[in-house]
Design goal:
243 residues, mainly alpha, 6 helices
Length: 243
Amino acid sequence: MPYRRLPNTDLARIYALKKAVEMEGYREKGELILSYQTTQEAQQFLSKFERAQRKYQQCYNLHSNSSKTYRKELAMARIYVSHFIQVLNMTIMRGELKKEIKTAYGLNPDNYNNPDLSSEQAVQEWGEKIIKAEEERASRGGVPIYNPTIAKVKVHWGIFNEHYFNQRLLRSNAANALEEVTQMRPQADDIILDIWNQVEGYYADLPIEEKMNKCKPFGLIYYYRKSEKARMKADQIQNSIDF
């Protein structure tokens, strides 16, 4: 026997609610299929749910579109920050600079491994540290690090840093919008379930095929199990052979 299944996406929820709202005032033998109260509740909720879903989609698109460029900027900033620290360490290992200067960069004088730059926050923080320390050292007459120079690092890190906080804001906006939609989903499902129960209850005494055809205009969706699909296909083949 075919079974119904509640929508599992927001677009499907909106579709089901819209179909029910479109059937407002529909009667059989002078009787309302859906109560006035249910239709009004569905209509009011649908407007709020659509607004929330549109807001999330807009926030998501803004974040997604911005991310394409931002990921490239992050990658370049990570390369230059990492490379600068490597060159600084090699300069110290060659004896050209004293290891104690690493403290000003936030680095452990006895550790020649690069800090973990896997996160964007780490790239932002370490970039800021080494740029500040290198510029201060150079301003006091220290020999600048080359290949890359801190000016080159600053250019690529600056491009990334310019969008770092904006990207965090876009990500936060998208997450908040998604949370709003997520919190509304249970109510959407409850309203849809109430609608479907009322509609199916009204047509409960009809044969299954006729009942399904009557319920579908209200947004009810029916599914056949795999075994039922196979049996229907077999019946169709048998009928064609008999013919």
